[in-house]
Amino acid sequence: MTIKKKPEGKEFEDLCQQWNEVDHDGKIALSRLYSVTYDTMKHWVSESGATRKQVKTEPRMTITVPELLAIRPSVNLDFVCFDIETSNLQADFSILMTACIKPYGQTPFVFRADDYPEWERDRANDCRITRAIAEELKRHAIIITHYGTYFDMPFLRAKMMKHNLEPLPQMFAVDTWQIARKNFKMSSRRLQNMANFFDLGEKDTVEGRLWMEAAYNGSKEAIDKIVEHNIRDVEILEKLACISFPYLKSIPKL
Question: What is the pTM assigned to this prediction?
Fold first, then answer.
């Protein structure tokens, strides 16, 4: 039954509360509900002294500061240097042998194919090392490589697809080779030549026979040498990235 007179008691208190909480259209709807004009309803509420300005309350935290600081994010908002060593330059003709992922200023994560049981009986199966590399990479936001836009990342993506692994999440890429191509006039933009020219340290050279001994004979000693070479590469890459950053105009998506 429609109410045509001013309500009283708890009903009126509830009405005033609703009036103060709704917008203009809501106030008109309330007035119609009680079969009075908007001005009449406004007068009722004003006369009661229940009129108040709506104060926008700030959202409250549902977690304490100590709890928030204790949360470990799934992605580190840092950059890592990344380099791989393979038995050949094409993913369908070679295997992943080693990889290094070096967070800035920290010891690199080293991945080597002979750490996995498949190395002894099924050397062509590089699924586990591919998965391990991808799992570590996806924890970081920015991947730094040297010519990695054209080799390291496409090679890794091809292997990931081959082994039915999920694609990497959205990340960003810095390629020091691309920075050098746009900013430095040099005879060669290979990492070794740039390391020598900019005095970043000596880059190890590994004889081709070591790659063959590692890939075909499974030589641990040969892989040890390749790993040393791989680590040295990411250490030099980190230095090159630091001196290249002033020339970085933007960070593209990977």
Answer: 0.70
